[in-house]
Recover the amino acids of this structure.
């Protein structure tokens, strides 16, 4: 069993800021994928596979936005203005 290491507030703040930057990149990427998938679905609206892919991409976007909110709230609790 691993021993849990205490993390300083500065380390936590820096880690959260870096994670937010990566999360922004992921959100941009998934939003572009959603646009592409919607365009493909507009060409063939009956394609169930593409519709399922779009639903999955939207769920990923929702999850990333939720994580973004959680990280931002934690940063605010640490006294960082975001």
């Amino acid at each position: 069993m691993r021993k849990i290491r205490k993390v300083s507030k500065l380390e936590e703040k820096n880690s959260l800021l870096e994670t937010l930057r990566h999360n922004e990149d992921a959100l941009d990427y998934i939003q572009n994928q959603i646009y592409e998938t919607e365009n493909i679905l507009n060409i063939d609206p009956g394609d169930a596979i593409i519709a399922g892919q779009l639903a999955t991409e939207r769920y990923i976007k929702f999850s990333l936005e939720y994580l973004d909110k959680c990280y931002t709230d934690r940063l605010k609790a640490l006294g960082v203005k975001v």
Observations:
- The two ends are 36 Å apart (CA to CA).
